Amino acid sequence: MSERPDEQAVYARWLDAGARIGLAALAAAFALYVSGVLDAHVPREQLPSLWVLSLEEFRARTGAPAGWGWLALLHTGDFLSLAAVALLALATLVCYGRLVFFYFSRNEKLHGALALAQALVLLAAASGFIGGGH
Amino acid sequence: MSGLELSGVAWWWWPVGLFAMSFVLGVMAVVGGIGGGVLFVPLVSGFFPFHIDFVRGAGLLLALSGSLSATPALLRNGLASLRLALPLALVGSVGSIVGALVGFALPAPVVQTALGATILAIVALMWFGGKADQPRVDRPDAIAAALRMGGVYHDPASGQDVDWRVHRTPAALVAFAGIGVLAGMFGLGAGWANVPVLNLLMGAPLKLSVGTSALLLSVIDTSAAWVYLHRGAILPMLVAPTVIGVMLGARIGARVLRVAPASTVRRVAIVVLLVAGLRAMLKGLGIWP
What we know:
The complex is a heterodimer.
Chain A: H1 6-34, H2 47-50, H3 55-62, H4 77-105, H5 109-127
Helix pairs in contact in A: 1-4, 4-5
Chain B: H1 13-32, H2 36-47, H3 52-76, H4 82-105, H5 108-128, H6 142-146, E1 150-155, E2 160-165, H7 169-186, H8 191-201, H9 206-231, H10 236-256, H11 262-284
Antiparallel strand pairs in B: 1-2
Helix pairs in contact in B: 1-2, 1-10, 1-11, 2-3, 2-11, 3-7, 3-9, 3-10, 4-7, 4-9, 5-11, 7-8, 8-9
């Protein structure tokens, strides 16, 4: 048998759930967006003239928010789809949170400290504190 | 507008075209053993009209979703090692955030030219690079020993259990910081670099290196993805068809893997990559806008 430490099984279980939820949410939100069931913040037919622009020009022309500002636009199909992408990106952070608890509860301080440092890096990126474009 | 000059084409043509291309890339990635992200970014930035900022974001999400899907099974089967990944993912994550920030700070032609140069270097690495199924590691280094980065690897092909350990961890940490910067800057995914560092530099078995590379990608790309998301460089109209296309293509690729001429597909993929790299460089330099 291969060596599969306990934390691998726990991490795998949590990541599997997170990835499945995120991908299903992305597919569902995109279906609502592309089919026109939900209105879009940036009209779909205008996109071909906008996605050729640089990021700064695109945001200036569309009023697309930076940071977590898109949370106010979840009623639109494009930003609901973006929320599904955020859900995917949250999966690893949640798994590391679980890993921190796992290691420290078993008094594995070195591994716990590494997992905690990784969780803090992910949290800083997710918060928009680092390079969030505010 | 550069690339395909198709003004007047209905908006829905683009996600359909992206889906079709991503599907083909997904098949090629599995059969040829080349990550979809590394093919996607130079091809789409070179031949589609989207600004490179949005293509890098889509490429990053493509690599991220693929690794998130593959990693749980790899961990369960012992084909990826969490303890091996822990310190490497940490420095790679910091590097990827730095890379993403640098990518947004640089002018687009500079990023495009650097992307072309990186892709051509990857082509050389893939063409001439070596690999070792079971590298010999006599003694783990101090960091590897302290973090217990080793174990027993079961090779299903040979049916044997193999003791594995790693060395040269400090050098690998430096390498992963650089890999992270490239992954974040270009949205490439980085299996092409992860595997040689794990296998040839650290001495991890080849299959364990491939599996652990997927785990590393899922962490490193997540860090950079948040920067792209907060900057507004994630366009769902590009990301969703790309992710869905690649994942369906990968499923089909896994089915045809047994009958497909893998070495031929890999050579074709490397030639495609060479063309895409040259195109990216010429576009960046303004020679072929």
